[in-house]
Amino acid sequence: MKTLLLVLWLAFLGVGCKVYKPIEKAGYVTDQNLSHFENIQRQLMQLETGQKLQVFLKNEKQVVVTFQKTDPKTLFANYNLPKNHMPVEIPIQEIESVKVSKFSLPLTGALVAVGGIVAVLIWDNSSSNWFEGFTIPLP
User: Fold this and answer.
1) Domain count of the chain?
2) CATH number at residue 40
3) Structural domain of 33
4) Which domain of life is it from (predicted)?
5) Cβ-count burial 74-103 (b if 16+ within 10 Å, e if not)
6) Domain for residue 86, yes or no?
7) Measured between alpha carbons, how far is residue 9 from residues 6, 18, 73, 83 in Å?
8) Is 76 in contact with 87 (CB distance < 8 Å)?
9) Residues 6+ apart with CB under 8 A from 101
10) For a pLDDT cut of 70, what percent of the chain falls above it?
């Protein structure tokens, strides 16, 4: 039991948590002198292949894709489907905003801390009779 808890806690520590941040808050430059379209173009040019994106379109639709490349008028990406990565082309003129998946140190730290506390509590109580009588009903 103790070994399993340690392995799970280390797995949480290694994986980390990612959140979607607006592209301008994720470190991609915005120039106030440029139009919305030009800023989106510049920001997309700075992305690396394989980054996960949430793209919000002007028609109020939202798509989650993996970035492949961009040209001055089109974002080329793949839908994030489990077994196949269907290519998609999104005209930059149709993009309202973009969010980029980024590592979140505060969220990861909080999850690791909570996981560590729970593991310590279970670890300390595993030798006592604390779990006696506790059962999980199965359907």
Assistant:
1) 1
2) 2.30.30.180
3) 18-104
4) Bacteria
5) ebbbeeeeeeeeeeeebebeebeebbbbee
6) yes
7) 5, 17, 45, 29
8) yes
9) 18, 19, 20, 51, 52, 53, 54
10) 60
